[in-house]
């Protein structure tokens, strides 16, 4: 029917035909909403429309019903049926649509729906979803009417636009309502203002943009509305500070327009300011602050001085308003205080300070002012978040840590927490793999030594057990001053560590030994009183840990001492460990005695690497604990010591054998290198190209790259240098640039061979060739000899072939002479392949 544009009569006949079958009728009715919502079907027959409405209502599809009703022609609908359903099920859009299109009435919907909204607002309770929907629909409907647009869609008849605007505006600004018993003034304005002041004022602001309000009568109407609003909201009660602030924000924006003609008494703004900033009123502070801030941003206090606004805002504790005023003055230190004093924004204080320090639009003087304020407020910041404060100081104010220390001098616990946070943050930054440089950040690594020493001093007071770990993990403190601090607070482990660093091994040993002796004495006292078994276990564990500390000190220091000094270090420790066993031998049970013997065995095993075994056995057998009794009591000690001795002896022998094998292999390779011979590729000098057939061999110099020269040619080319031993060394200038000393190891394959071989006046260099064994892998690089051979081959290829062939056919004497007088065929140049004498020069490259 839609495709062929059937008329209404044919559509009715089709429906009547399908209506015989209930199933077909239901399917037909269910298919209609899709076409209606798409806009392809806007008119139905009266009977069909009635059945369609009844079908959707029976299935409780009221939202779809309302959407379809506002898209159908009003003439095809049963008004009584539709209005009954709409009022029953709160279909407000359909009600407005029926009144507008069916009755051409635009004010009655406002009056009837406004009565429902006023009834809901009168109880002062939270509005339901349907009531909120009603209020929102009313605001949108009024806005559409005042703008000349239809609701919920479409347009108003152009001939009715002006009259509709006037009627609706007159309706909402009416002095009294439609009810006969309604005595309130401006009921519709009050209802809309109570429902949503801000949104209704936005509706009015949009309406004031229409051209009807630019005429003389329109301007009068605008002034009348403003006077009514002031009368309702300012001169009467019942509106919250937020709603009053929204009104004056609306007025401030209207007064700031260039074409403004409104007249508003400025004293009203003064009254609103006094009302919003009343310090005695602690109710709705956030609402009043937000209203004042919006009014201030809208320019409502143009004639009021900022100092007065700031004073009133500070008294009212409106910190966000103060922030707005301070920002205009670029007083960032004051804004920092606003964040710090505002309970709801204290945690954001650190983020604001970081933003200021990183900003490029803020001068250094302004940043310095913020730094000073931050130092003054350091205690409050530490109370908020110690970690965040330390990170902020380390990242941006590391150069002001001394000032913080002076500020917190009277609160040592707070100062210790601050410095602890600084060092923790510093450690996290230094351990970060990729630390980005923050713009505006200061260097956090250059903390003064006095700061570290102060931190160590406080740590000795509040956490002495962590001092040793700290001083062994960080540097930068002064040794003598830190040692004096640790001595003053009697932190023995840290004192011993510092003495060891200072080189006073005996002093460090004495301190640790005294601590061990005190723990052993405490254990002896507890042993005499058998009621402290649990505490005895703790003390024995402390003895074991302290003994390990002393043993580690002795092991680190023994390598720097002679035999007498080592014995003076180890034997007193052994005496201290064995003394309680003599005193408590009768009190110690088998288990406790075994524990002490385990300590002794651990100590003896640690001593054996530094003290001779006979001395240890002699000292052990002199002790009454082990000298008396049966051999079985000391057998375990002696056997374990002997096992350790045998193990170390076998280890030493194995190490020596490996070293000897390595030395032999190295010397064997040197011998092979020394016995290797080199052959020249040519019988002529590479510099002057003259043959060596004539002349003395003493004038010939041959290099390991197989290039040969006259000595005079090398001297002329300055191919010589003096080595570290003061001897003159030659080098091939064909392989290296003239005047430049060849680098050591220039060719890895011949790096261990000498650079010269010849019969010069100096002693010939000994050959040393350390051939590396072939390994599977990539092809090795060409050495100097191979490169020289390639150059020789290229030179031969550049020779004219005709000349070489002709000389061969003619039996050129030069060729015969070359073969006959070859350099290698001379008796005085034959290589004698005997092992060369290995001298110090073998190791010269």
Characterization of the model:
The chain has a 3-stranded antiparallel sheet. The chain is built from 39 helices and 5 strands. The chain starts with 7 loop residues before the first helix and ends in a 25-residue tail after the last helix. The protein is mainly alpha-helical and 845 residues long.
Strand and helix layout:
Elements: H1 8-18, H2 22-37, H3 46-58, H4 62-69, H5 79-88, H6 92-102, H7 108-122, H8 129-147, H9 161-172, H10 187-195, H11 197-207, H12 216-233, H13 241-255, H14 266-276, H15 285-297, H16 306-316, H17 319-329, H18 332-341, H19 349-358, H20 364-376, H21 378-384, H22 386-396, H23 401-407, H24 412-431, H25 449-462, H26 467-473, H27 479-488, H28 492-502, H29 505-528, H30 533-558, H31 563-583, H32 590-607, H33 613-622, H34 624-627, H35 632-674, E1 700-702, E2 708-710, H36 711-717, E3 720-722, E4 728-730, E5 757-758, H37 784-798, H38 801-809, H39 813-820
Domain Vacuolar protein sorting-associated protein 8 central: 28-208
Biased composition (Basic and acidic residues): 763-775
InterPro entries: TPR_VPS8_2, Vps41/Vps8, Vps8_central_dom, Znf_FYVE_PHD, Znf_RING_Vps8
């Amino acid at each position: 029917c839609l495709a062929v544009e059937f008329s209404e009569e044919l559509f009715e006949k089709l429906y009547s035909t399908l209506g015989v079958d209930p199933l077909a009728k239901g399917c037909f009715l269910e298919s209609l909403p899709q076409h209606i919502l798409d806009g392809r079907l806007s008119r139905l027959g009266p009977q069909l429309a009635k059945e369609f409405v009844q079908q959707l209502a029976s299935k409780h599809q009221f939202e779809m019903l309302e959407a379809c009703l506002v898209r159908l022609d009003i003439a095809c609908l049963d008004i009584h049926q539709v209005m009954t359903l709409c009022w029953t099920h709160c279909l407000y859009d359909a009600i407005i649509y029926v009144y507008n299109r069916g009755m051409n009435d635009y004010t009655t919907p406002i009056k009837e729906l406004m009565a429902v909204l006023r009834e809901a607002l009168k109880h002062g309770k939270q509005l339901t979803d349907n009531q909120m929907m009603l209020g929102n629909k009313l605001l949108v409907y009024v806005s559409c009417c005042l703008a000349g647009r239809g609701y919920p869609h479409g347009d108003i008849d152009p001939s009715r636009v002006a009259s509709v605007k006037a009627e609706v505006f007159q309706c909402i600004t009416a002095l009294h309502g439609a009810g006969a018993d309604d005595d309130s003034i401006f009921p519709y304005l009050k209802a809309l203002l109570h429902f949503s002041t801000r949104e209704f004022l936005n509706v009015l602001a949009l309406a004031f943009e229409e051209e009807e309000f630019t005429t003389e009568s329109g301007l009068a109407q605008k002034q009348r509305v403003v006077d009514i609003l002031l009368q309702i909201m300012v001169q009467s009660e019942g509106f919250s500070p937020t709603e009053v602030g929204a009104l004056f924000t609306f007025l401030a924006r209207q007064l700031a327009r260039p074409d403004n003609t409104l007249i508003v008494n400025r004293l009203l703004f003064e009254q609103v300011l006094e009302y919003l900033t009343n310090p005695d009123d602690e109710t709705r502070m956030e609402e009043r602050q937000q209203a004042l801030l919006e009014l201030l941003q809208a320019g409502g206090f143009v004639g009021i001085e900022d100092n007065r606004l700031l004073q009133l805002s500070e008294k009212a504790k409106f910190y966000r308003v103060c922030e707005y005023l301070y920002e205009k003055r670029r007083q960032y230190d004051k804004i920092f205080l606003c964040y710090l004093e505002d309970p709801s924004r204290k945690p954001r204080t650190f983020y604001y300070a970081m933003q200021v320090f990183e900003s490029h639009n803020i001068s250094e003087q302004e940043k310095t002012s913020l730094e000073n304020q931050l130092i003054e407020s350091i205690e409050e910041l530490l109370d908020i978040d110690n970690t965040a404060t330390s990170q902020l100081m380390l990242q941006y104010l590391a150069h002001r840590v001394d000032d913080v220390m002076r500020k917190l001098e009277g609160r040592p616990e707070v100062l210790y927490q601050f410095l602890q946070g600084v060092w923790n943050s510093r450690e996290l930054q230094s351990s970060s793999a990729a630390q980005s440089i923050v713009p505006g950040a200061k260097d956090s690594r250059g903390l003064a030594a006095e700061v570290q020493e102060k931190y160590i001093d406080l740590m000795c007071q509040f956490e002495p057990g962590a001092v040793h770990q700290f001083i062994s993990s960080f540097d930068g403190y002064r040794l003598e001053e830190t040692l004096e601090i640790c001595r003053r607070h009697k932190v023995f482990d840290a004192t011993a560590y510092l003495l060891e660093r200072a080189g006073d091994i005996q002093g460090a040993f004495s301190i640790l030994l005294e601590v061990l002796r005190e723990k052993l004495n405490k254990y002896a006292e507890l042993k005499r009183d058998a009621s402290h078994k649990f505490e005895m276990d703790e003390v024995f564990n402390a003895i074991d840990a302290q003994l390990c500390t002393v043993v580690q000190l002795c092991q680190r220091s023994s390598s720097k001492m002679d035999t007498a000094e080592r014995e003076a270090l180890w034997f007193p420790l052994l005496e201290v460990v064995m003394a309680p066993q003599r005193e408590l031998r009768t009190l110690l049970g088998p288990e406790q005695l075994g524990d002490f013997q385990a300590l002794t065995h651990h100590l003896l095993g640690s001593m054996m690497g530094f003290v001779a075994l006979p001395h240890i056995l002699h000292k052990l057998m002199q002790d009454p604990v082990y000298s008396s009794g049966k051999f079985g009591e000391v057998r375990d000690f002696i056997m374990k010591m002997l096992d350790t001795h045998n193990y170390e002896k076998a280890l030493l022998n194995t190490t020596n054998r490996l070293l000897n094998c390595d030395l032999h292999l190295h010397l064997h390779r040197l011998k092979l290198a020394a016995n290797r011979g080199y052959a020249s590729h040519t019988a002529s000098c590479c510099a002057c190209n003259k043959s060596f057939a004539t002349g003395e061999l003493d004038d010939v110099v041959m290099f390991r790259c197989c290039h040969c020269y006259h000595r005079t040619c090398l001297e002329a080319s300055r191919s010589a240098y003096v080595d570290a031993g003061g001897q003159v060394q030659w080098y091939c200038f064909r392989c290296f640039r003239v005047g430049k000393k060849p680098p050591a190891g220039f060719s890895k394959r011949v790096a261990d061979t000498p650079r010269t071989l010849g019969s010069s006046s100096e002693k010939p260099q000994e050959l040393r060739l350390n051939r590396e064994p072939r390994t599977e892998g990539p092809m090795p690089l060409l050495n100097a000899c191979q490169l020289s051979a390639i150059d020789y081959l290229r030179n031969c290829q550049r020779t004219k072939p005709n000349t070489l062939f002709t000389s061969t056919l003619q039996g050129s004497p030069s060729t015969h002479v070359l073969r006959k007088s070859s350099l290698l065929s001379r008796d005085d140049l034959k290589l004698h392949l005997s092992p060369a004498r290995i001298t110090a020069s073998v190791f010269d490259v």
